[in-house]
Design a protein that fits this description.
Blueprint lengths: L1 H7 L7 H16 L5 H4 L14 H12 L4 E9 L6 H16 L3 E11 L5 E9 L6 H16 L6 E5 H13 L2 H21 L6 H25 L5 H30 L5 H28 L7 H32 L21 H9 L3 H16 L21 H12 L8 E5 L4 H10 L3 E2 L5 E3 L2 E8 L6 H15 L7 E3 L1 H35 L3 H29 L8 H31 L1 H28 L7 H33 L21 H6 L8
Helix pairs in contact: 2-9, 2-12, 6-7, 7-15, 8-10, 8-21, 9-10, 9-12, 10-11, 10-12, 10-21, 11-12, 11-18, 11-20, 13-21, 14-19, 14-22, 18-19, 18-20, 19-20, 19-22, 20-21, 20-22, 21-22
Length: 710
C-alpha cells in the first residue's frame, strides 16, 4: 500500500515535478510534427465500414475487380420547371460533348442526354477515372470541373451533379474544416468555463496547456496505431476524440485542482498538499478513466469497421488525458505555487467555504423525505423517456444526412421527380454463369425494379443491373433489396448476391442493429464490474447503473422530441442509439464515481447518511463545473453540417447536464439517504450504524472546496 501511495504521489516531489515537466515537453516536441497527419489517413467512405462478410461487400469486391475503385459514376441532371426549351437542349448536348472530351471521363462511358417523359428534365451519366485511387482531392476536383461546365451559361436552367461522385464530393465538403472548428471551439469553451469556475485570470492556463499536450500526444499515438495496424480512422471519430480529450481531461483537472486547493488550506507545504490530493483524487480519476476507456474498447467487437475504430481512438485519447492530468498538471501547479489561484489564494489555515454551501443545504433538505424525492425524480425521468416512442433511428437518407441539402441531394430529388427513383445508382446482382438465365428472369419478376440489363458474363460471374423505381435510400428501396435477395437466394446453385449502394446502406443498418445487441450488454457488464471493485459493494453499483440507464432513456426521449419538433429532423442514424448509450453511460457513471468515492470516504468517517450529505457538499460544485465543461464541448458538434453529429452532440450535452444536475445531485443522493447503510451491502460500511445527518461542524471538516459554478 505504501509503495502504491508513493508512486501515486510521485509528481508531488520537489525534483520530480521538473523531470515530469521536461518529459512532457519532450513528448510535445516529438509529437508536434505529426499534428495534422492524422487527417491525411482518414477514411470517410461508408463502404469501407462494412464487414467483409456482408453481401454487398462481397459484390463490391467483384465490382472492383471489373471496375477499379478509382472509377466513379457521375450524374448531371438539368431541369426547368416550365419545361426545357430548344436552347436548353442544345446547351445540354454541347455539355455532353465537352464531358466526353475531358481526360478524366472514360471513352465510351457517356450516356445521354436522356430527356424525361414530362419534358422538364434531362440527365447525362458519366464514368470518371480519378488519379490517386480516388482520393478526396481528386473527387473534389472532378466534381468542381463537371459542375462548372454544367452550370455555365444556363440562362435559368438548373444543373446539379449527383450520383456517387456528387455524393462523395459533398460529403468531403461537409467534413472539410470540421476538425479545426471543433478544436478551436472546444478550446474556447473550456477557457470560458474555467474562467467562470476558477474566477482566476491565470489558473485556467494550466489545465488548458495540459489538455493541449495530451491531445497532441494522443493524435501521435493514434496515427502510429492506425498506420501500423490498419485501424480505420475517420473525421467523425477524430472529431469526437478532440471533444472527449478536452472534456474528460478538463473534468479530471477540475477534480484534482479542487482537492489540491482543499489540502492547501490544511498544509503549509504545497508539495505535501499535492501528495495528499493525488492520493485522494487518484481512485476516482482512475476509475472514471478506466470506465470510459473500457466502455470505448467494447467498440472493438463491432461488426462495422468504422464503429470498431472508435474504441482504440477514444481509448487512447482518454488514457493520455488521464496521465497528463495526474502527472503534468500536478507538476505545473507545484511549479507555479499558490499565486496561480490569484485572486482567491487558498492560504494555510483559511476556512473551507463548502461546508455550509448550497449543496450542503440541498442534501439536508432532501434528508427529511428522501424516498419522496427519489421516487418523484425517477417518475419524472420516466415521463421524459416516453419521448422514445418518436425516435426513428433507422438510418438517414441522403437528404436527411445534411442540415442544408447540398447540390447532390438536390440533384437526387430532381431525378426522383422526373426519372425512375434509382437512376444513377443501379442494383448489382451477380451469380454463377450457369444461372444467368434464371437470374435474369428472377430480377425482371421482382417488384420495385425497372430497366433490367441482359446478363453479362465477366471474370467468371454473371452480372445483371437494374434500376430502382423508388429513391435509392428510402424504405421502399430497402424493401425491394430484401425481396430481391430472398428471390435470387432461392435460385438453385446460383450463389447469387445483391449489391449496389442501396444494398450497402441496408447492410450498414443491419450491422448497426447487430452491434447494438452485442455492445450494450457488454458495456453494462464492464461498468458493473468496475463499480464493484471501486465501491466494494453490490447494491450501490446496481443502483448506479439503474440511474444512468434511466437517465439515458430520458435523454433519448427528450432528444427525439427536440429532433422532431425543433431541429426538424425526421430520422436518426442507425448507429446513433449505440453511440449515445456508450457515451452517456460511461460519462454518466463518471460523475457518480466522483460523488460516490467521496461519499464512501465520508461515510467511513461519519456514517452512511451523514456521509451522503457531506459527499454532495464536497463534490457538488466541482462536478457541476465538470458537467458544464463536458456538455459545452460536446455541444460544439451541433455546429456541424452533418445530421448525425448534431444529433449526437445534442444528446450527449443534454444527457451530461441531466446526469450532473438531476441524477447525481438529486436522485443518487436521495437514494443514499433513503437506503443508508444498505447502499453499501455487503461491505464494512453496511455494518456501520446509520447515524443522523449532522449540522455543519463535521460536514465542513470533511468537505472540499466547491467550484463557484453551480
Amino acid at each position: 500500500m505504501k509503495a502504491a501511495q508513493a508512486i501515486i504521489s510521485l509528481p508531488s516531489g520537489r525534483r520530480a515535478k521538473w523531470v515530469i515537466a521536461v518529459f512532457w515537453l519532450a513528448v510535445a516536441v516529438a509529437a508536434l510534427p505529426f499534428w495534422g497527419k492524422l487527417m491525411g489517413i482518414e477514411n470517410n467512405d461508408a463502404q469501407s465500414s462494412l464487414p467483409a462478410t456482408a453481401e454487398s461487400t462481397r459484390v463490391l469486391s467483384i465490382q472492383e475487380r471489373l471496375q477499379p475503385p478509382n472509377e466513379y459514376s457521375a450524374v448531371i441532371v438539368y431541369s426547368r420547371p416550365a419545361g426545357l426549351t430548344a436552347a436548353d437542349r442544345a446547351k445540354v448536348a454541347a455539355d455532353t460533348r465537352r464531358f466526353a472530351e475531358l481526360p478524366m471521363v472514360l471513352p465510351g462511358h457517356v450516356t445521354g442526354p436522356v430527356i424525361s417523359r414530362d419534358g422538364r428534365a434531362m440527365q447525362v451519366i458519366l464514368l470518371v477515372d480519378l488519379p490517386g485511387k480516388g482520393s478526396g482531392a481528386a473527387v473534389d476536383h472532378a466534381a468542381s470541373v463537371l459542375r462548372a461546365i454544367a452550370k455555365s451559361h444556363d440562362h435559368g436552367m438548373t444543373a446539379n451533379l449527383t450520383g456517387p461522385l456528387g455524393f462523395s464530393a459533398d460529403s468531403n465538403n461537409a467534413f472539410q474544416g470540421l476538425l479545426s472548428t471543433v478544436f478551436f471551439a472546444a478550446m474556447a469553451v473550456v477557457i470560458i468555463l474555467l474562467l467562470l469556475t476558477y474566477r482566476s485570470p491565470v489558473l485556467w492556463v494550466l489545465p488548458v496547456a495540459s489538455v493541449g499536450l495530451a491531445l497532441t500526444a494522443a493524435q501521435w499515438l493514434v496515427y502510429l496505431v492506425a498506420t501500423h495496424t490498419g485501424l480505420i480512422v475517420n473525421t467523425v471519430n477524430v472529431g469526437v476524440l478532440y471533444v472527449l480529450v478536452f472534456g474528460a481531461g478538463t473534468d479530471y483537472a477540475l477534480l484534482l485542482t479542487a482537492r489540491y486547493r482543499e489540502e492547501l488550506r490544511r498544509h503549509a507545504d504545497r508539495h505535501e498538499a499535492m501528495a495528499i490530493a493525488l492520493r485522494r483524487a487518484f481512485p476516482a480519476i482512475l476509475a472514471s478513466a478506466a470506465t470510459v476507456i473500457l466502455a470505448m474498447l467494447t467498440f472493438v467487437v463491432a461488426s462495422l469497421t468504422s464503429t470498431r475504430g472508435f474504441g482504440p481512438v477514444l481509448g487512447i485519447g482518454v488514457g493520455v488525458a488521464m496521465l497528463a492530468m495526474l502527472t503534468l498538471l500536478p507538476a505545473l501547479l507545484l511549479i507555479t505555487g499558490r499565486w496561480v489561484f490569484w485572486p482567491r489564494r487558498p492560504e494555510f489555515g483559511s476556512a473551507d467555504p463548502a461546508g455550509g454551501g448550497a449543496w450542503a443545504r440541498l442534501g439536508q433538505r432532501m434528508s427529511a423525505r428522501p424516498r419522496l424525492v427519489w421516487v418523484g425524480t425517477a417518475v419524472g425521468l420516466g415521463i421524459l423517456a416516453l419521448g422514445l416512442t418518436g425516435l426513428q433511428a433507422h438510418g438517414l437518407t441522403h437528404a436527411q444526412a445534411y442540415r442544408t441539402p447540398p447540390d447532390s441531394v438536390i440533384g437526387e430529388q430532381v431525378l426522383a421527380a422526373h426519372f425512375p427513383g434509382g437512376e444513377g445508382e443501379p442494383v448489382i446482382v451477380v451469380s454463377r454463369p450457369s444461372a444467368a438465365a434464371s437470374l435474369d428472369a428472377t430480377v425482371r419478376a421482382t417488384r420495385g425494379l425497372t430497366e433490367v440489363t441482359p446478363p453479362r458474363v465477366l471474370a467468371g460471374h454473371a452480372i445483371v443491373e437494374a434500376t430502382l423505381t423508388s429513391p435509392p435510400d428510402d424504405s421502399a428501396a430497402y424493401a425491394t433489396i430484401e425481396r430481391l435477395r430472398a428471390a435470387v437466394h432461392a435460385i438453385p446453385r446460383a450463389n447469387a448476391m445483391v449489391g449496389g449502394n442501396t444494398a450497402i446502406n441496408l447492410d450498414f443498418q443491419q450491422a448497426s442493429e447487430h452491434d447494438r445487441r452485442v455492445i450494450i450488454p457488454l458495456v453494462l457488464g464492464v461498468v458493473f464490474l468496475i463499480l464493484i471493485l471501486l465501491l466494494r459493494a453490490i447494491v450501490a453499483p446496481l443502483i448506479l447503473i439503474g440511474t444512468v440507464v434511466l437517465s439515458f432513456a430520458a435523454s433519448l426521449g427528450v432528444s427525439a422530441l427536440v429532433f422532431n419538433h425543433v431541429f426538424g429532423f425526421d430520422a436518426a442514424d442507425s448507429s446513433y442509439p449505440l453511440f449515445a448509450f456508450v457515451f452517456l453511460v460511461a460519462l454518466g457513471i463518471d460523475y457518480n464515481i466522483f460523488l460516490m468515492t467521496r461519499v464512501r470516504e465520508e461515510a467511513a468517517r461519519i456514517g452512511p447518511r451523514p456521509g451522503a450529505v457531506a459527499g454532495l457538499a464536497a463534490t457538488g460544485g466541482v462536478i457541476t463545473s465538470a458537467g458544464c465543461v463536458l456538455a459545452g464541448t460536446f455541444a460544439i458538434l451541433d455546429t456541424a453540417q452533418l445530421t448525425e453529429l448534431v444529433e449526437l452532440g445534442f444528446t450527449i450535452s443534454f444527457g451530461v447536464l441531466l446526469d450532473t444536475i438531476i441524477v447525481r445531485s438529486v436522485l443518487v443522493t436521495a437514494l443514499n439517504l433513503d437506503l443508508g447503510r444498505w447502499m453499501w451491502w455487503p461491505s464494512r460500511l453496511f455494518r456501520q450504524p446509520a447515524g443522523d445527518v449532522p449540522g455543519s461542524p463535521g460536514l465542513a471538516q470533511g468537505a472540499s472546496e466547491s467550484a463557484p459554478v453551480g
